[in-house]
Structure to design on (257 residues):
């Protein structure tokens, strides 16, 4: 099973992703934790780890990511030479690449909630957790390919899956390969050009542009977009304020039309 899935992913890697080391495990607590614990390996500084079952997925700030049989949970380790500050926009670039991969598979109507949540019709279909380790990063992605009834009930109406969003029923190996085929060239580009190269693609998919939002506890105003570093721009009564990618959460104060 594991070897079959691994062969299926590798056979469908294309372009710059061809030959990427892809490891598959039956189950683990967290693919991000595993890659962080493994450290960087000189022979495979770039690699992906797919857990067919992830039992304790992590979100930001100690939150958890729930997954079930129809989930795709994997991490990508990438050795950047840029410093920590230059990686602030990385989660946004990853979100763009994930959207593009899902769009390649026929998913429509995806938006990105700053910095990096993947939404469809205001419901979360995927989560991204970027953890920087030294100059490298471990990029974890959890995607609801198809939610079974019990998991959908447990997650509530704030969650959705991509299979009901225009994507036909596809093997998870193909979904993973398609995402990696977008992520690998995106990471290569990010290394050279930074977030600025992704800003337009991010903005065209941004959720809540022009709407009234709250960022963290203090900043409230109209969402203008992001700057070239990935910081959120909000027009408040006191003028424009920027929020860096960090622990801040963005919420809308309006019900979208
Ligand atoms: P932020 O806006 O700051 O990113 P968040 O609530 O989206 O906040 P994350 O850390 O990005 O938090 O993601 C974890 C949260 O996502 C969980 O607390 C839960 O609300 C939600 N969640 C967990 N598993 C799933 C899933 N499979 N599908 C959709 N949503 C999920």
């Amino acid at each position: 099973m594991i070897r079959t899935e691994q062969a299926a992913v590798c056979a469908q890697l294309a372009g710059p992703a061809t030959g990427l080391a892809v490891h598959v495990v039956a189950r683990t607590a967290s693919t991000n934790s595993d890659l962080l614990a493994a450290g960087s390996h000189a022979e495979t500084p770039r690699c992906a780890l797919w857990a067919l079952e992830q039992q304790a997925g992590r979100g930001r700030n100690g939150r958890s990511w729930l997954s079930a049989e129809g989930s795709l949970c994997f991490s990508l380790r990438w050795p950047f030479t840029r410093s920590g500050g230059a990686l602030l926009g990385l989660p946004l670039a990853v979100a763009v690449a994930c959207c593009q991969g899902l769009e390649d598979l026929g998913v429509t109507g995806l938006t990105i909630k700053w910095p990096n949540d993947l939404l469809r019709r205001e419901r979360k279909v995927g989560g991204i957790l970027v953890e920087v380790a030294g100059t490298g990063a471990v990029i974890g992605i959890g995607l609801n390919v198809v939610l079974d009834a019990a998991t959908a009930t447990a997650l509530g109406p704030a969650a959705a899956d991509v299979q009901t969003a225009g994507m036909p029923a596809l093997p998870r190996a193909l979904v993973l390969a398609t995402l990696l085929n977008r992520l690998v060239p995106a990471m290569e580009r990010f290394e050279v050009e930074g977030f600025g190269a992704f800003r337009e693609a991010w903005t065209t998919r941004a959720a809540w542009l022009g709407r009234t939002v709250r960022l963290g506890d203090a900043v409230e105003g109209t969402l203008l977009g992001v700057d070239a570093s990935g910081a959120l721009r909000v027009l408040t009564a006191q003028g424009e304020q920027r929020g860096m990618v960090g622990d801040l959460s963005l919420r809308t104060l309006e019900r979208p039309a």
